[in-house]
Specification:
Layout (H helix, E strand, L loop, with lengths): L10 H6 L4 H11 L1 H37 L7 H7 L3 H49 L2 H5 L1 H16 L2 H26 L1 H46 L2 H9 L3 H53 L5 H43 L20 E9 L9 E9 L3 E6 L5 H8 L7 E6 L2 E2 L5 H7 E4 L10 H6 L9 H10 L3 H6 L20 H14 L4 E5 L7 H14 L4 E5 L3 H4 L4 E6 L2 E6 L1 H7 L2 H13 L1
Parallel strand pairs: 3-8, 3-9, 6-7, 7-8
Antiparallel strand pairs: 1-2, 1-4, 4-5, 9-10
Helix pairs in contact: 2-3, 3-5, 3-8, 3-12, 5-7, 7-9, 7-12, 8-9, 8-12, 9-11, 9-12, 11-12, 16-18, 21-22
The structure holds adenosine-5'-triphosphate (ATP).
The site of adenosine-5'-triphosphate has 12 residues, from helix 13.
Length: about 625
């Protein structure tokens, strides 16, 4: 069940989000240990070198002042060099030059390493996300709350890789600040305290606004998904046809504008408040800096510090202020983004419920007795009504069973239960006498070939579209061609300019779109790709003309001889081919029998059959 995430409200909870940082750093480390180590080492260099430079600067000034005090005649440069009085200062300048080069090189290398690491991490985390998503139950996918969370998790891995630079930048700044503080404490400890106290209001302010920003984003996730959806509707090829014909442009644009404006207004209010308070708090920091500055000038004039000390102290204070400001801003940004890590890691923690048992039973190569539904009931999460209730049904191995019934009668649900996409809410389903839940899930699914009514039109090549049925055999062109011939897709592919290599769909350059019926033939070829024991066609032929559907099913029947087959169709010319027919109504079995028996019975089936037959007369 999707757990409702509470929004972090209190200060502790906000800072508490930082607890995900170690897990985040572990994830970054796992993405690339080498790049992560390099990045941290370079940051360390970048933190320490500036302090060393400031100190060498101080030594230079002191040396120069000392030299300037010693009287010297009207010397030329060569006299200075020969006297040896330039040697000390010269060495110091050379040292500072070397440090400057190290600072420059480590800065450049560090941006290079960080950009490589950010991309590696983003790819790594995306793969983890896809793997996790693949392991989830269909039901967990279908809840809108879960979709919201997935959406936030996805944004976390794609849009928020800056977190990486931020966290490492923080580490660098902390190291830099600590080095400076150690140096400054040696001179005048109380000034550092002044600076730290002055920055406290900014810290608290930033934390507060971050939590507000996150809450805004959190509560806006459903709206943002709506916004993305409306944007997609208004600007994609899949919808262009209906948008034009129904004249939906203005309607969609208006809807987009309405959502977007509310979100913009809320964001603007927050950003303005943040800028105001942030500016006010920052003024405290600046004030502290100037107080410290004045104090240092005074003590230098009083003779407590040398001019070199003064430049070092003033330079260090300025740098420390910059670092602390940066740390503060960075900290609040890190804390803000860490709140989103909650989404990513809580997504990683969702446990699928439809899983293999600890000691799974292997599925036999060929099914012996078949499936038995025992008092099976299923209710979709959040639904009031049962989609299926008290269903007892036997599907003997090798039988061709047809399911008929009005829209919403429960046909697709039954198929999903059979393929163990869901587990029954009540009762159980047996395969060869054992509960489906006892079997190895992957093996079970690999034995079942389903073509759904809403099959996916993959914008891949024609060959790949068929190979979807058994993706491990994507390189086996012979099998793909055979599957295509069996589903009557072969003739369609032969007409494509690039044949099996033809990209399908218009999403990418060079793609060719197919008609609905042509797509269906391609989708049916997927069922032939699988060496499945159980074949299920859930109305994938609705776009085929009556003749084509008859032909497709005829072949399907012949080619799947000996296999357990389930057909769902609203066309009785097809349904009558089945060995056994089940009429579902409101999730229960209303009638069952052969075509002849059901017609002779004069019940619901006969009524529906008569209605359709009359339409053709
Ligand atoms: N994902 C879902 N979440 C909630 N309810 C659902 C979901 N899918 C189907 N239902 C409901 O379950 C019931 C059975 O639906 P099902 O899709 O099994 O019907 P069907 O017989 O296949 O219909 P059709 O002929 O229209 O394909 C319907 O009342 C439907 O509204």
């Amino acid at each position: 069940m999707a757990t409702v995430l509470r929004t972090p409200q209190s200060f502790r909870e906000r800072v508490g989000a930082l607890r995900h940082l170690p897990a985040f750093i572990r994830l970054v480390w796992a993405a690339s240990p080498a790049l992560t180590s390099a990045s941290i080492a370079l940051r360390l260099a970048r933190a320490v070198v500036p302090v060393l430079m400031l100190y060498v600067g101080k030594l230079i000034i002191d040396a120069v002042v000392a030299e300037a005090r010693v009287p010297h005649p009207d010397w030329s440069l060569s006299d200075w060099i020969e006297s040896g009085r330039l040697a000390h200062v010269g060495t110091l300048v050379a040292l500072e030059f070397c440090l400057a080069i190290v600072a420059d090189v480590s800065g450049r290398l560090s941006s290079l390493v960080d950009s490589l690491l950010a991309e590696t991490y983003s790819n790594f985390a995306s793969i983890r996300l896809m793997e996790k998503a693949a392991s989830l139950d269909l039901e967990q996918f279908e809840s809108s709350e879960q979709q919201d969370r997935l959406d936030r998790a996805r944004r976390q891995v794609t849009g928020r890789t800056s977190l990486l630079g931020l966290v490492f930048g923080q580490i660098q700044d902390i190291l830099g600040a600590v080095t400076l503080m150690i140096a400054l404490v040696a001179y005048w400890p109380s000034l550092i305290m002044l600076m730290l106290v002055a920055l406290l209001p900014s810290l608290l302010g930033e934390l507060k606004f971050n939590a507000l920003g996150y809450r805004l984003d959190y509560f806006r996730t459903p709206e943002r998904r709506q916004l993305d959806y409306v944007r997609y509707l208004g600007s994609s090829i899949e919808t262009a046809k209906e948008v034009k014909l129904f004249g939906l442009e203005r309607f969609l644009i208006e809807r987009f504008r309405r959502f977007a404006e509310t979100m913009y207004r809320d964001n603007r209010r927050l950003a303005t408040r943040r800028a105001f308070w942030g500016g006010l708090f920052a003024a405290f920091g600046t004030l502290a800096y100037y107080v410290a500055y004045a104090a240092v000038i005074w003590r230098t004039m009083a003779g407590d510090f040398s001019v070199g000390d003064m430049t070092f102290l003033v330079g260090s204070f300025l740098r420390l202020k910059g670092l602390l400001d940066g740390l503060l801003l960075g900290f609040s940004q890190v804390a803000g983004q860490a709140l989103y890590l909650e989404d990513l890691f809580s997504f990683f923690e969702i446990a699928p419920r439809v899983v293999s048992p600890p000691d799974p039973v292997p599925v036999r190569q060929s099914i012996r007795s078949g499936f038995v539904f025992e008092d099976v009931g299923f209710r979709y999460e959040g639904a009031q009504q049962w989609a299926i209730r008290h269903l007892d049904l036997e599907i003997p191995a090798g039988e061709v069973l047809a399911l008929v019934g009005a829209n919403g009668a429960g046909k697709t649900t039954l198929v999903k239960l059979l393929a163990r996409l869901y587990d029954p809410t009540e009762g159980r389903i047996l395969l060869d006498g054992r509960d489906l839940r006892d079997y190895d899930l992957d093996m079970l699914r690999s034995r079942v070939g389903v073509v759904f009514q809403d099959f996916v039109r993959f914008h891949f090549t024609a060959a790949e579209n068929i190979a979807i049925g058994d993706i491990g055999a994507a390189g086996d062109r012979e099998r793909i061609a055979e599957a295509a011939d069996r589903s009557l897709a072969g003739a369609i592919i032969a007409r494509l300019p690039l044949g099996f290599e033809q990209p399908l769909g218009r999403r990418f350059g060079g793609g060719i779109d197919l008609s609905g019926g042509e797509w269906q033939k391609i989708a049916i070829a997927r069922a032939y790709m699988r060496d499945a024991e159980v074949l299920i066609l859930d109305e994938p032929t609705s776009a085929l003309d009556a003749h084509a559907e008859y032909e497709v099913f005829q072949r399907f029947r012949d080619l799947s001889a000996g296999k357990t087959t389930l057909l769902i169709s609203h066309r009785f010319s097809t349904v009558r081919m089945a060995d056994h027919i089940i009429v579902l109504e409101g999730g229960r079995i209303l009638e069952a029998g052969t075509h002849q028996a059901l017609v002779a019975r004069g019940g619901r089936y006969a009524q529906m059959f008569e209605l359709q037959a009359a339409g053709y007369r």
